[in-house]
Structure to design on (231 residues):
């Protein structure tokens, strides 16, 4: 089973700042088989990025994903108030399709 | 647009079977993968498994063969059964959709999710 480790666990930033979230896999996910999701309290997760770097429909271009193999990054160039949430990565290169433990992005 | 809605009992007794249904509206169940994911209170997401519209399945081995997912194409529904439920199965259960590409079921990610249904396993 591929274990995904997200860092940091909590990220405290102010609106307008840049956020960099990391997702590291215990072994290669096989290229770019990784997605990022955002979850707000009481809501279902929302797809942000698929295949490591492709934005889902409706996702603003200030969010971007990068990486391949074992190291992946989600970057939010200029934080807006609606960006403060929990972010999860998920690999789907090898079953079981595991999730990371999440990074909480909170307002500083 | 496509919407998913989970339904089923919110309370299940230990050792009984947890059964949930996801109804797909606004679109066809054909040509997609249909998944279940759960989230214990205050914790992260756990992938349970998926069913393809044709009926083929894949499950998380951590559930030790206690899970089954099936699809009912005429009703535009798919279902989850988790046998011998324990308190550890208490969670919010989500259903979700994905579209495959080049033999990768989740290539485009889980792009549509239900709102989730809370299930408590307790006597």
């Amino acid at each position: 089973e591929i274990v995904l480790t997200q860092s940091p666990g909590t990220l405290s930033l102010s609106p307008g700042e840049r956020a960099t979230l990391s997702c590291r896999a215990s072994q290669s996910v096989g290229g770019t088989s990784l997605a990022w999701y955002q979850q707000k309290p009481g809501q279902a997760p929302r797809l942000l990025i698929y295949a490591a770097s492709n934005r889902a429909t409706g996702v603003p271009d200030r969010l971007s994903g990068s990486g391949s193999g074992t190291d992946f990054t989600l970057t939010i160039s200029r934080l807006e108030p609606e960006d403060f949430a929990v972010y999860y990565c998920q690999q789907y290169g090898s079953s079981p399709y595991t999730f990371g433990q999440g990074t909480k992005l909170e307002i500083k | 647009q496509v919407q998913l809605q989970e339904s089923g009992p919110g309370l299940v007794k230990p050792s009984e079977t947890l059964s949930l249904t996801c109804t797909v509206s606004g679109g066809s169940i054909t040509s997609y993968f249909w998944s279940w994911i759960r989230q214990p209170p205050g914790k992260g997401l756990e992938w349970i498994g998926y069913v393809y519209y044709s009926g083929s399945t894949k499950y998380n081995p951590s559930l030790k063969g206690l899970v089954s997912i099936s699809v009912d194409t005429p009703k535009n529904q798919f279902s989850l059964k988790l046998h011998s439920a324990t308190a550890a199965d208490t969670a919010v259960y989500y259903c979700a959709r994905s579209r495959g590409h080049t033999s990768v079921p989740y290539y485009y990610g889980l792009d549509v999710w239900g709102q989730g249904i809370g299930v408590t396993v307790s006597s």
Notes: The mean pLDDT of chain A is 97. Chain A touches chain B at residues 1, 33, 35, 37, 43-47, 49-51, 56-57, 88, 90, 92-93, 95-102 (CB under 8 Å).
